[in-house]
Amino acid sequence: MQQVLHCQLEGDSDTQIAARLDLSRHTVNHYTKQIYRHFGVHARATLLARWLSRRWR
Fold first, then answer.
1. Alpha helix (H) ranges present in the chain?
2. Coil/strand/helix, residue 1
3. What confidence tier does 56 reach under pLDDT thresholds 50, 70, 90?
4. Greatest CA separation found in the chain?
5. What tens digit of pLDDT does each residue of 4-52 get?
6. Most buried residue among 8, 19, 32, 43 by CB atoms closer than 10 A?
7. pLDDT in the model for residue 46
8. How many CB atoms lie within 10 A of CB 12?
9. Hey, what CATH topology would domain 2-54 get?
10. Using alpha carbons only, what angle is made at residue 18 by residues 40 and 52, rounded to the nearest 5 degrees?
11. Is 9 exposed, middle or buried (0-12, 13-18, 19+ CB in 10 A)?
């Protein structure tokens, strides 16, 4: 999940993440939902904004 998060924050699409990490798109989508739930967001842009505003590493 951390690798998926990292790729999302770099701006990769789910398809790009799947290819980059050798995962299925279904798996990437599942991880994305878990990440969104964890951070309390509903969109990738919101996730990025929250990440940047809190300066998480």
1. 2-9, 14-21, 25-39, 44-54
2. coil
3. low
4. 31
5. 999 998 999 999 999 999 999 999 999 999 999 999 999 999 998 988 8
6. 8
7. 93
8. 18
9. Arc Repressor Mutant, subunit A (1.10.10)
10. 35
11. middle
Question: How is residue 42 annotated by DSSP?
Answer: S
Q: Which residue has the tokens 């994305």?
A: 32
Task: Render the burial of 15-46: b for 16+ CB within 10 Å, e for the rest.
Answer: eebbeeeebeeeebeebbeebbeeeebeebee
Q: Which amino acid is residue 48, in one-letter code? A: L
Domain locations along the chain? 2-54
Looking at residue 57, its pLDDT comes to 57
